[in-house]
Design brief:
heterotrimer, A: MetI-like fold, 16 helices, about 0% strand, globular, B: mainly alpha, MetI-like fold, flat
Chain lengths: ~300, ~325, ~550
């Protein structure tokens, strides 16, 4: 069936109900897009508006006093290049490792006859809801020698129970016959994983890449707590530092009071800088997203691969 | 040896033999087992802190035992129950509307034929996920203030007589925070459902088209049933998260003095009466309460889910 | 398969990178290394590592400093892990009793005798004020405040817009009643600002704004120094939770009066810091009792927007003429400073570093910079070069890059105090105030016959014998500490209701219910007792 004839037939067959459905759909989604886009547009406008001018409020649709200074001020941060390289490295390496581990572990859990299946899935589920708290976790990291080591960005991120269970549900839907036929050909489970499962799981891999990469890109607490050397600083941590210079983060009266009493003026991060940070954090994700997006937007489906 | 008759087929293969047969699977799973033990279960040693009066100086194993003192303290605190109520209400609303909206968005996007439109809407819809709560709270305060855009519109349409300060109304706080959370994460969560939708066999749709089923019918009889396992799985996991679904930031940053009795949740409670006062024992006790409660919830949800999805998720 | 090849290549790359990435090397140094942590709120202070003043100190002492900055984010968590793992650097700036309680700090008494001559001479008898009540030892050295200081600008006080004063012919505003009259008179002349309504009296009570705009104003109008949450009987030193007292109730009554006359909006109790700043910066807030130190940004915005007449004059305010303002009386007391950790291998060397900063030389170096580079001596007085002055005012990173006047918690003098040579310790002193003021400010200053806002205030009152009550230490996490945390939650939720009472009876009933709950539900009496004890303990040590 060629595309043209398909389209023609569709047009003929489309009922009144279907057409009104389309109209409602487009209106709804357009509204949604506007509602989500406007605040972001506003963030961008404030990011390129003069900080003192922003303080007066009332900047909604268009910058009143345009300036690149907010963005430039952040881009001129002293350890920025180092931080950027580290962030890219941890995102690339960390998310690759995570995706491999998550898919492999989920795949193992899809074998209904596997002896430890129940034990391992329960361990994974329980791990989502229990936590020993910061201090014991810190000791684990320290005893493994990960303090001040690049691998502290990779190893603790290897698995994520939530993603594992989600991926498992997906892999379970791949028809059993496919892996069985491969196994009859003499392939062991590892080979089946590499040859059969991975190629059929591209949409889920794309999703995992996106989610783990964003997790890596956005995390700063580990940099703050587990590293000391500025060599290991990350972009997000540097940005959070800028962000935190805000008196709205002051929770204790004493902190504030001791600052004021020492004769220091209390200044906060101007709103514009905060907005500039949001823009700078989101931009790389916006750039990478289209490459990932095609895996769940275009018709690359399981059926397509199968056929 | 060769003449030995084959063993009578036992109903169950011996355990050791089964392991040997599955050695490759076992080897593949082993690193992850170890990882979970080290990173998820070893830190649970820290739970002893909940039963002692932990002081940094004396450490985890040298601090004096106090039994259930910390549990008694929060279970006997009036405010704790208020906080629990708020946590449940906000999380329930968030999970319910969050899930419904994300599924609807994914399904609707799937129905869009124009590729450009689809891509644009999808990209735009997840943008709020990257805006921090400080900024989100700012946006909502500006929009809902008595001089804000919403009041401006309501007044000029004559729907209200005088400006309403929405953020200062106790009874609208849960609604506002739910809207904020759904708005922020709907697009991002829809990605999961979109990925699940890609697994649906297009032949099913083709067959439905030939049968003359309407588009709404396709959604109802094909798309939703096909992603049902994913929906149920995520829902079960989220129900287990009922105590944590609304975290520290939404409650702390969206709330204010006039709504404080309805905005404070468990995360803020644990921070205010635990970490901030240096009472790590107290925050550990709260986190144990949280874990036990969550596990009970997730098990119940799992049992219920067996009615919908074969075998449940655990 | 193409996909497989690509994937394999990528994997190989990842593996190479993950091995290569951690191989970062630290430059070896021949001089002894002293590691330093600074718990600060300030940004980019890491720049200070390469600042010329720090380099000069390293040269003079023959050491290599590695300064690390721990910013204000999640400070509790960072400290908790640091304490739990006992992983301390040699020197820690801005530490408080939490570090002492954790056993992280060395007592400095002996070290001071050996290597701390400059510290001892700068501090003299004030050293007692640094002693930890637990064992009467000194664990950290703060920024000394033991010399007379004439203030240029006020801290917390009454702030009234220049325009209000000008239109009313520069009246004397001394009491809440004067203020009320000034606001209503002004509104009669000028009902709105280009169509937008004014915010006649500024309050933001959310979060820490409660202390600044609700609790503390009540202290000032009753003539107290900053005892924060405590009302302290100056004879017996019995402590009462300030929010339960009639002193506090008086101020709430004033707010109630403003509210019922439409001069205070209910928005005051949901306003956050950003929102308040933008209210001020838009010129709509006519008056407020607030900390002037928090006004620098919105006032800069007002000037930048060409509305200098919307900036604020600073006045003392008290309930009536009989009550004497004590808001700017300095009650010498310290709550943090620089300490040496128990992990320090060479405490004597660390002490030398601290002593260097506390010396006259160190004071000049870290406040003024290097002679000829940052400042010149003109007519026997130090003065920053004009370009230094400009850069300092305009570039927020400059102070860290150059290492001058960057921290007011290092153990050196700051503000308008004088060094032994008779010249000011730091460039931020009173003499520059009038010179640097803009025309609008000068006009108001002239109208009141003063040269700086500090002149409006009497700083010569007798300090309390225990310092500021907010610097008092109560054991963290104790029942008293918990009671205070609970009371804090309660007052945030109840004070708005009290202020928004419609009638006097309702106001009184709400206030009584509030006080009741403080004692019955929050057990605030535990905190009162602990504070009383803390005052007695402190006075015993200070008296030595």
């Amino acid at each position: 069936m060629t595309g043209i004839s398909y389209k023609k037939r569709r047009r003929i067959k489309e009922s009144w109900g279907d057409r009104s459905f389309s109209i409602v759909l487009y209106i709804l989604l357009t509204l949604l897009a506007l509602v989500t886009l406007y605040p972001f547009w506003n963030v961008f406008v404030l990011a390129v508006n003069d900080p003192l001018d922003t303080l007066r409020g009332g900047v909604y649709f268009w910058p009143r006093k345009f300036t690149w200074n907010n963005l430039l001020q952040i881009l001129q941060m002293p350890s920025l290049s180092r931080a950027f390289v580290n962030s890219v490295l941890r995102t690339a390496i960390g998310s690759t490792v995570s995706v491999i581990c998550i898919t492999m572990f989920s795949y193992v859990l899809t074998y209904r006859k596997f002896v430890f299946r129940k034990l391992l899935s329960r361990m994974a589920v329980i791990s989502m809801y229990v936590s020993g708290g910061l201090i014991p976790y810190f000791f684990v990291i320290r005893d493994l020698g990960l303090i001040n080591h690049f691998l502290v960005y990779i190893i603790p991120f290897m698995l994520n129970a939530y993603y594992v269970l989600f991926t498992r549900t997906f892999i379970e839907q791949i028809p059993e016959e496919l892996r069985e036929s491969a196994q009859i050909d003499g392939a062991n489970e590892l080979v089946v994983y590499i040859r059969v499962i991975l190629p059929l799981s591209l949409p889920i891999i794309a999703t995992l890449v996106l989610f783990t990469a964003v997790d890596q890109w956005n995390s700063w607490f580990d940099t703050y707590i587990y590293t000391k050397a500025t060599d290991l600083t990350t972009l997000q941590y540097e940005l959070v530092k800028v962000l935190s210079k805000s008196t709205s983060s002051i929770k204790s009266y004493r902190d504030l009071q001791s600052q004021l009493n020492a004769g220091g003026a209390v200044t906060s991060t101007p709103q514009s800088i905060r907005m500039a940070i949001t823009v700078i954090t989101t931009l790389p994700i916006l750039c990478v997203y289209p490459f990932v997006q095609r895996y769940f937007i275009t018709g690359l489906t399981l059926g397509g691969v199968k056929g | 040896m060769e003449n030995r008759p084959p063993l009578p087929a036992s109903r169950k293969t011996p355990f050791a033999k089964r392991i040997w047969n599955q050695r490759i699977l076992v080897l593949m799973a082993l690193p992850f087992f170890l990882w979970m033990v080290v990173f998820n279960y070893r830190p649970l040693v820290g739970w002893v802190m909940a039963f002692e009066n932990y002081k940094p100086r004396t450490g985890m194993f040298g601090s004096p035992w106090v039994g259930f003192k910390w549990f008694q303290e929060f279970l006997g605190d009036k405010r704790f129950y208020e906080v629990l109520r708020n946590t449940f209400a906000m999380s329930f609303l968030n999970i319910f509307f969050g899930t419904v909206c994300a599924i609807l968005l994914a399904v609707f996007l799937n129905e869009v034929r124009s590729r450009h439109f689809k891509k644009t809407v999808q990209t735009v819809s997840y943008l709020p996920h990257f805006i921090s709560w400080v900024v989100v709270s700012n946006i909502f305060y500006t929009f809902l203030s008595s001089e804000g855009l919403l009041n401006h519109v309501l007044l000029s349409l004559g729907l209200t007589k005088e400006a309403v300060s929405f953020m200062s109304k106790e009874n609208s706080f849960w609604g506002i925070v739910t809207v904020a959370q759904v708005w922020k994460d709907m697009g991002w969560n829809a990605i999961l459902y979109l990925a699940a939708i890609t697994a649906i066999d297009p032949q099913l749709y083709e067959a439905a088209r030939l049968d003359g089923i309407t588009r709404w019918g396709k959604i109802r009889y094909i798309t939703i049933p096909c992603i049902l396992p994913t929906i149920v799985m995520l829902l079960v996991l989220n129900i287990g998260n009922l105590l944590n679904s609304t975290g520290f930031d939404p409650s702390y940053l969206m709330g204010n003095d006039m709504t404080i009795n309805y905005s404070q949740n468990l995360a803020v409670y644990a921070y205010t009466y635990g970490i901030e006062l240096g009472r790590y024992s107290m925050s550990t006790a709260l986190s144990i309460f949280n874990s036990v409660f969550s596990l009970l919830l997730v098990c119940t949800a799992n049992l219920l889910s067996r009615k919908v999805v074969e075998g449940g998720i655990l | 398969m193409l996909w497989n090849k690509k994937a394999a290549l990528f994997l190989a790359l990842v593996m190479v990178l993950s091995i290569a990435a951690p191989m970062t090397s630290l430059a070896e140094s021949a001089r002894p290394v002293v590691t330093v942590f600074d718990f600060t709120e300030e940004l980019n202070q890491e720049l200070i590592n390469k600042a010329p003043t720090i380099l000069k100190m390293e040269e003079d002492l023959g050491i290599d400093l590695q300064i690390e900055v721990v910013s204000g984010i999640s400070k509790e968590e960072k400290m908790a892990t640091m304490i739990a793992s006992e992983d301390y650097p040699d020197i820690m700036f801005r530490v408080d009793e939490r570090m002492i309680e954790a056993g992280a700090l060395l007592p400095l008494d002996d070290l001071l005798e050996k290597e701390g001559q400059h510290v001892l001479s700068a501090w003299g008898g004030s050293l007692n004020k640094l002693r930890y009540p637990g064992d009467a030892k000194v664990y950290w050295i703060g920024s000394p405040k033991n010399r007379p200081e004439e203030i240029a600008d006020a801290g917390a006080c009454l702030l009234v817009q220049y325009d209000v004063l000008e239109k009313l012919g520069y009246p004397a505003i001394k009491t809440p009643d004067d203020l009320y009259k000034a606001i209503t008179d002004y509104l009669a002349i000028s009902p709105d600002l280009n169509g937008t309504p004014y915010i006649p009296y500024g309050v933001w009570a959310d979060s820490w704004g409660y202390n600044q705009t609700v609790n503390n104003p009540a202290l000032w109008i009753n003539g107290f120094t900053d005892d924060s949450d405590a009302y302290i009987d100056q004879e017996t030193f019995d402590v009462t939770y300030f929010n339960t007292t009639d002193y506090f109730k008086t101020y709430l009554a004033f707010l109630n009066k403003l509210y019922n006359n439409g001069l205070l909006s209910e928005n005051a109790f949901i306003t956050k810091y950003d929102e308040f700043n933008s209210q001020v910066a838009s010129g709509r807030v006519l008056a407020t009792i607030y900390n002037a130190g928090l006004m620098s940004e919105p006032e800069a915005a007002l000037r930048a927007a060409g509305m200098p007449e919307r900036c604020y004059a600073r006045f003392p305010i008290t309930l009536n003429e009989d009550v004497k303002d004590r808001s700017q009386v300095y009650c010498e007391s310290y709550d943090n400073g620089v300490g040496i950790s128990v992990n320090c291998k060479d405490p004597e060397l660390a002490m030398k570093v601290i002593d260097y900063i506390a010396s006259n030389e160190g004071n000049v170096l870290f406040n003024w910079g290097i002679e000829g580079v940052h400042y010149d001596v003109v007519d026997g007085k130090r003065a920053w070069k004009p370009e230094v002055k400009d850069a300092y005012a305009s570039d927020p990173n400059y102070r860290y890059q150059e290492g001058i006047s960057f921290a007011n918690w290092w153990p050196m003098y700051v503000g308008s105090m004088k060094l032994d040579d008779g010249d000011f310790a730091s460039p931020a002193n009173k003499e520059d105030f009038y010179k640097n003021a803009d025309d609008a400010t000068k006009k108001v200053l002239d109208a009141y016959g003063i040269t700086c806002w500090g002149d409006n205030f009497d700083t010569t009152g007798t300090p309390t014998p225990y310092g500021y009550a907010w610097t008092l230490v109560i054991e963290t996490g104790s029942d008293a500490d918990l009671a205070n945390a609970k009371a804090n939650t309660l007052r945030h939720s109840m004070v708005p209701t009290i202020v928004m009472s419609k009638t006097e009876d309702e106001f009184n009933a709400n206030f009584d219910s509030f006080v009741n709950q403080l004692y019955n539900d929050c057990k605030i009496n535990l905190w009162e007792d602990a504070m009383h004890q803390a005052i007695l303990d402190r006075m015993a040590i200070w008296g030595e």
